[in-house]
Amino acid sequence: MWAVGVAARASDLWEFQMSDASLNPQTISGDAEFGDYFALLKPRVMTLVVFTAFVGLLAAPMSLHPFVAFCAVLFIAIGGGASGALNMWWDADIDAVMRRTANRPVPAGRVDAQEALALGLALSGFSVIFLGLATNWSAAALLAFTIFFYVVIYTMWLKRWTPQNIVIGGAAGAFPPMIGWMAATGGFALEPVLMFALIFMWTPPHFWALALFMRSDYDDAGVPMLTVTHGRRSTRKHILFYTIILAALALAMAFTSAGGYVYGATALVLNAIFVKGAIDIARRDEEQCEADNFVVEKKFFRFSLLYLFAHFTAILIDSTLLRLEVFI
Amino acid sequence: MSLVREHDLHKKRRSRNAAVALLLVSLIGIVLGLTLVKVTSGGFEAVVTSQEGR
Questions:
Q1: A237-274: per-residue pLDDT in tens?
Q2: A68 — contact with chain B (CB < 8 Å)?
Q3: What is the ipTM of this complex?
Q4: Quick check: is A21 in a domain?
Q5: What is the predicted pLDDT for the residue at B54?
Q6: A283 is in which domain, residue-wise?
Q7: Chain A partners of B15 at a C-beta cutoff of 8 Å?
């Protein structure tokens, strides 16, 4: 398949070279701008990766040289972007069906699917090798596993097979703080595992709340979503179940070295509000939701964004205060 | 006046080439920066010591 793709691309290039573009007023389709290649890396997802990896790196008890720390976060972000490009290469068929993703570079025809594959593979190799050279090979191995997990386990295997796809996909997004911690220390600890668990358990309630009020077109694409396979009533119970476990894990973090006074106070308040929101969602029925246009679900979804950002910011503040020896 | 009319494709490619050039320069900067940090902070000493010990 790879050889066929390369041959097809070479043929396109040959045809282009034979016909001078200045004499041909028609724009050649598939000639992408730089922004299209950047869009393959899913920049919005990369911001979460950058932020959480940075927090994981800074919360670690050992410190890296600032330039090495910058490079480590950059390579983790590039690794995340590479897995995004590989995801777009594999999922081009379902992206073309769904309205939300139909304008992505591959289904829109601006970038060839084989180009997305090549970019994804090249950046995967680059990010893993450079993270290993800059920090340590344990962190590089974990980054390589994260890319493998997201692309092979989630995208190729489980996404189209199980309604728990959101839960599994959440794991891939939860690795960056762990990689950041490992880049700084070279090993595991309870704190990065809890940071992983925080994002992992946060992802399902966040996306299922969205699925409740967004009339999703995943069904048309043949992707099993919990709201469709198990019904909306069951999705509401799932949200409550995951939120309660999430709250327990988030509060447990306060008793580790990564959590301090700021984190403890933040976690206490935010988890009380989040659990209350999940209970409200679980108690509601579809008639109520239709009547008020899903106001509770929308509020819960918006709050979930603040929830994750505030928890990691609190960890960042506490670790900074600890380094400045403010609370000692 | 230019003999060849500039096509939209040329504009696209110029911006793409400029971005790639910028990326390559950034890569050189990163490799140079990492090397300097590793050399000055003794990041390579462990490797040299372990090789000498063989």
A1: 999 999 999 999 999 999 998 888 999 999 999 999 99
A2: yes
A3: 0.75
A4: no
A5: 54
A6: 189-214+223-328
A7: 33-34
- Same domain membership, residue A108 and residue A71: yes
- pLDDT of A269-310, one tens digit each? 999 999 999 999 999 988 888 888 889 999 999 999 999 999
The C-alpha of B49 sits at a distance from chain A's nearest C-alpha, in angstroms, of 17
A65/B41 CB distance under 8 A? yes
Nearest-neighbour CA in chain B from A58: distance (Å): 19
The reply to whether A4 falls in a domain is no
A139: closest CA among A200, A177, A180, A170? Answer: A180
- Per residue in A88-111, pLDDT tens? 999 999 889 888 888 899 999 999
A chain contacts of residue B30, beta-carbon cutoff 8 Å: 71, 74, 130
By the 10 Å C-beta count (0-12 exposed, 13-18 middle, 19+ buried), A212 is classed as: buried
A202 and A122 in a single domain? The answer is no
Predicted confidence band of residue A77 (pLDDT cuts 50, 70, 90): very high
How does pLDDT run across A181-190, given as a tens digit for each residue? 999 999 989 9
The HSE-up count of residue A222 (CA atoms within 13 Å, CB side) is 8
| The total number of structural domains that make up chain A | 2
Q: A235 with A210: CB under 8 angstroms?
A: no
CB contact under 8 A, A33 and B15: yes
Q: Does any CB of chain B come closer than 8 Å to the CB of residue A71?
A: yes
- Taking CB atoms and an 8 Å cutoff, what residues of chain B touch A68? 34, 37
- Flag if A65 and B37 touch (Cβ within 8 Å): yes
* Domain CATH number, residue A80: 1.10.357.140
pLDDT recorded at residue B46? 56
Q: Which residues of B touch A65 (CB under 8 A)?
A: 37, 41
SS3 string of A8-64?
Answer: HHHHHHHHHHHCCCCCCCCCCCCCCCHHHHHHCCCHHHHHHHHHHHHHHHHHCCCCC
- Residues of B with Cβ-Cβ distance to A183 under 8 angstroms: none
Is residue A200 domain-shared with residue A314, that is, in the same domain?
yes
From A170, A186, A202, the end of a domain falls on A186
